[in-house]
Design goal:
alpha/beta, binds manganese (II) ion, binds guanosine-5'-monophosphate, inorganic pyrophosphatase (n-terminal core), 6-stranded parallel beta sheet
């Protein structure tokens, strides 16, 4: 057994109250990885609980634990409960985040906890030294793929996907499917291998796809049309396109968390467009959320780090801007002007 897996097995076997945490604005991989870990640990007779810093898209709610006592705790709305869980944990596991600051309000509580801390993540430049055990690999599609590989190596699963609980397998599939934009980016040979083995395990691929990807409201679909037709701007000299999503449009189209999922990918379908950005005004104000995507030869991670207070992956990154939405177009153009070819094609 590799040493990190032996150490993981030791930490899991010694703990009972295990708290699973993912990042602010959780996406499919965040929800998939924490719920997959939950269902696996439940099978082991542990007492796992999940905390997310902010609410998650409604189309993921079927992944939630069945037991009402184990429902996902959203820190933004139940801060006391979340902090109590962290304080009472004898093991903390962070999934799908590279920096503890991505847990927002939980960072301090995590740091002051004396419980051992584990990281399982697939982002660039993870803060490995802030954890007792860090399982980090950027050559996988998703945290869910990394978790799948990790589970297979544990003694009770013993390389047999048939021993993974079905609900855990479903969560793993959903995280991988959403982080790859349904097998269109960040796909490695191991990703198809994982999909094949999970389907053989009994995961209903078509059913999950319908639940997660064909779940939007009429108003979300109209918002998407509005974004492409009225919001998208093209900057030909940078082979870039961007869209702004302000609070006015959110209100007009009855915006729900998760509704803008996938919007940022749309301009990349245009021939010659290599960088796409979506700037979303935070509902409570205060900042603009940044989503960046690129075609394979262009690096947007460095763009996110240098100009947008963020990071992520080479072709999919995010961050924040603390300026009014109206000032974003000029800021974005200036950032692209200053972003050297050396950084862009690194
Ligand atoms: P998305 O555009 O889907 O929100 O995020 C794309 C990728 O960028 C995700 O892998 C996510 O983890 C990363 N990301 C998004 N926002 C931030 C951020 O504020 N900071 C960092 N470091 N990464 C981010
Ligand atoms: Mn991920």
């Amino acid at each position: 057994m590799p040493t990190d897996i032996a150490q993981l097995e030791k930490l899991l076997s010694e703990a009972r109250n295990i708290v699973l945490i993912s990042h602010f604005n959780p996406d499919g991989d965040a929800v998939g990885s924490v719920t997959a870990a939950y269902h696996y640990l439940k099978m082991r007779g542990k007492n796992p609980r999940i905390i997310l810093p902010s609410t998650y898209p409604a189309n993921m709610s079927f992944l939630e634990p069945e037991d009402p006592a184990d429902r996902i705790v959203i820190c933004e709305t139940e801060r006391g409960k979340a902090l109590g869980l962290v304080a009472g944990a004898d093991l903390l596991v962070c999934l799908d985040l590279n920096r503890l600051s991505r847990t927002e309000y939980l960072e301090e509580a995590i740091l002051s906890s004396s419980a051992p801390k584990i990281l399982l993540d697939h982002h660039i430049a993870a803060e490995l030294d802030r954890f007792d055990l860090a399982i980090s690999d950027i050559k996988v599609s998703s945290t869910c793929e990394l978790l799948f590989r990790t589970l297979l190596q544990l003694p009770d699963i013993a390389s047999d996907p048939g021993r993974i609980p079905l609900r855990c397998a479903e969560s793993l599939y959903v995280g991988m499917m959403t982080d790859t934009n349904n097998f269109s980016n960040s796909v490695f040979p191991g990703t198809f291998d994982m999909a094949a083995r999970l389907i053989a395990r009994g995961v209903d691929k078509d059913g999950l796809q319908e639940k997660v990807l064909c779940c939007y409201s009429v108003s979300r679909t109209r918002l998407m049309g509005h974004m492409i037709k009225d919001s998208m701007k093209v900057i030909p000299r940078h082979r870039a396109a961007y869209m702004l999503l302000g609070n006015h449009d959110k209100k007009r189209y009855h915006f729900q968390p998760g509704d803008s999922e996938g919007f940022v990918n749309l301009p990349l379908a245009i021939a010659g467009i290599e960088i796409s950005a979506l700037f979303t005004e935070n509902t409570e104000g205060g900042y603009v959320r940044v989503s960046l995507r690129s075609k394979s030869k262009v690096n947007v991670n460095r763009l996110a780090v240098r100009f947008f207070n963020g990071g992520g992956h080479r072709n999919a990154s995010g961050g924040r801007l603390y300026i009014p939405l109206e000032e974003v177009p000029a800021y974005f153009e200036k950032a692209l002007d200053e972003y050297s070819d050396e950084e862009k094609f690194s």
